[in-house]
Amino acid sequence: MQIDVLTLFPQMFEGPMGLSMMWKAQERGLLHLHLHDLRDWGEGRRRQVDDTPCGGGGGMILRADVLVRAIEDVRSDDEQPVILFTPQGRVFNQGIAGQLSQEERLLLVCGHYEGVDERVRQLAITDEISIGDYVITGGELAAMVVIDATVRQLPGVLGAEHAAAQDSHADGLLEGPHYTRPTDFRGLQVPDLLLSGDHGRIATWRRRQSLLRTLQRRPDLLAAASLSDEERDWLTQRDPGLRHPGP
Ligand code: ADE
Fold it and tell me: 141 in ligand 1 pocket by Cβ < 6 Å?
């Protein structure tokens, strides 16, 4: 997968993209990450990329001419999605990460300052993504969140031992608890079953823990999760309110 990023701060990506799974994905040739410095398309001697808002008010706005030129230069073809990071976008989740991981190429545009000139949206953006209902200083952190969640779903990025299919949210549920040695820590024991070697019962226990944790922390996820009738009955016994889900 090729990911192009247009940003005023390419250096921000070096740490997170140069370590751990994102580094491995690049080493294995599964991710080709191209960082483009927006200033290279800036205007004049000072390579200006922004200007004051028409109509007055504070802050600076990224210029349409600079941004559209940069997008048009970097975009490989009309098929490559062009994603703008903004709190006004659709809210990112595991499902969107899965869809993006099917693309051969992405072009990610990191906004900064007070926002981008509206004409950029009209002329050059195909999708807008928010990473949650809060405001961060620029799109770079959002881009890194989206890159990480997307790339870890590419076949071959994670080893089989921690396949993305087991992640929280992968099946619409939260993961249950995990344990490792020591088996007794400050009087808290690892559940005996996990030390039994009985893989069938361990799998059933894990699935139930995952259901319980989702019920306790994110009951809103249960409505859309794919559960067997037996699992729904089992959960209903733990929370009779589930029988009559609210509106
Ligand atoms: N830029 C500023 N806030 C953002 C958010 N919540 N998501 C994506 N990009 C942003």
Answer: no
List of residues 6+ apart from 217 with CB closer than 8 A: 174
Averaged pLDDT for residues 212-237: 94
**Mind listing the pLDDT tens digit for each residue in 85-107?**
999 999 999 999 999 999 999 99
Q: Does residue 132's CB lie within 6 angstroms of at least one atom of ligand 1?
A: yes
Q: Give me the count of residues in the chain.
A: 247
In DSSP notation, 164-220 reads: GGGSTTTTSS-------S-SEETTEEPPGGGGS--HHHHHHHHHHHHHHHHHHH-GG
pTM over 0.85, yes/no: yes
Q: Which of 127, 148, 167, 175 is catalytic?
A: 167
Cβ atoms of 119 and 134 within 8 Å: the answer is no
Q: Which one from 114, 128, 175, 231 is the annotated catalytic residue? A: 114
State the distance from the centre of ligand 1 to the C-alpha of 18, rounded, in angstroms: 22
